[in-house]
Amino acid sequence: MIAADLLAPAESEALLLSLRVSAVAVVCAFPIAFAAALFVARHAFPGRALLDGILHVPLALPPVVVGYLLLVVFGTREPVGAWLESHLGIRFAFSWTGAALASGLITFPFQYRAIRLSLEAQEPGLLQAAETLGAGSVDRFLCITAPLALPGILAGLITAFAASLGEFGAIITFVSNIPGETRTLPLAIYSALQQPGGEVEAARLSAISIALALAGVGFAGFAERRLSLALRG
Amino acid sequence: MTIDVALRHRFGDFSLDASFRIGKGVTALYGPSGSGKTTIVNALAGLLRPDHGRIVVDGETLLDTDTGAFVSARRRRTGYVFQDARLFPHYSVRQNLLFGARRATKCTFSPRLDDVVELLGLQSLLGRKPGKLSGGEKSRVALGRALLSGPRVLLLDEPLAALDAKRKSEIIPYLERLRDSVRPPMIYVTHSVEEVSRLAEDLIVLHNGKIVASGSVFDLLCDPLLGPLVPTHGAVFPATVHEHRADGLTALAFDGGVILVPHLARPLQATLRVRLAADDIILAREAPEAISANNLLAVVVAAGHTHTETHSDVRLSCGGIKLVARITRASFNRLGLQQGENILAIVKSVAVDPQTGPLANGTD
Fold it and tell me: Is the ipTM of this complex over 0.90?
């Protein structure tokens, strides 16, 4: 790996951990965000605005509060956390999976919102047209709804991934700052600044973060152009 | 091929109550906005479940609210052409055309892609996405897509309403070709008399959710009693190109004889629909001498004239073809026309509209 020549082991460890945590967070939150967006976009019911608001809550809460609430629910001595560990062998506390859970929760609204908007922008008449042409509900979803939602899905995934890379408060509160396990890039920068003479290390880690962000922005623009070309010609 | 329809439906303060039977050919559902045309078509397509109703197509019950029978829109095989085309924006024209064809189960008539592309002039559009098409092109693609889905009946919901006069004129000949070649059963929703007179064979006139008249388009269009609802002021009848004469006139044969028009660039035996405006007919008991008009049609005075203070709409029969002539009340009184009397209808050749040209503007 090229990065291994340029980066110190601790640096590449933090970088790879950040990427893994964010990828798992975003991928796991995606189906839930899509289902929630589809439900809210396609149904009129009392309390729709309230549900929409609730789905945005993780964005509004201070991340430290989200981390604290996760600790209260999923901590090893709390009922849910203890049950999950003893019955399913799943442990979130002090584990990188906990970091992914916290990131996924905090960035969920980005995905939900982008997908909901793209679904709401679809012309409902297209589904009727597809139906009169013989397409069943799964067929309509796969051939019309899903492809036309791709720009929203892409935007949601990219925003959520970027926001997840920067997540700090919820992770450090919920799963602490364990090197190699939960010390993602932001936490590593924070740790470096806590050490006497760690300024250079912090600067290097920040440079990695900036490079990552630029690469992400570049990829997003490229993917968006390709997708719009594929969808609208 | 018959479609029996009986529907009762209410939403808000609008109520629809309509029963009719239609067969092959083009049936126009005609009426002003809000008269229930689209509600009927949506019920036929299965996109709307009426409060009460029964729809039977060729013995197959698609809807019966008494027994609870309901065939979903997906399985009805109606080729629905929406007013706003509703092409799938992420598919090419070719993919749009084949969307229904790939999902068709059994086909009453199943045109081939090449034939539809040829009929609708879509060759150069196949690789494009709908975003790159003009309004008229979108309408043609939507029509082709519906045709290729192998429908039992084509439902056209004001397919031309969103287009300007020039675009309408582009599409009308394609619809005429479709009507005269493939001959699918078509229900054509419109509020344009001109589209009715060009395309429809049967006519159902709707007003406030009720059917006020139905029958052959040739009979209804010159029915003065429908005047306020169907403002045609004239008759439409079928004719064929009979002879291109040396004097520059073209003779069109119709059930009432021959009518002469200025030279028409159509092959012999070509069929067309002649429109004769009531205002353009002069009535006479005897043939005048030395007159410029080329057509002196022998007609019989029929019954059912309608009068206003100033005008009389005189109903005539010309070899079974119904005509209507608008003359002044004064002329009507002076002539003292008797029912069954043989008289002459004098028509200038230039006033006969063989309906081959573009649509006039402002038909709405």
Answer: no
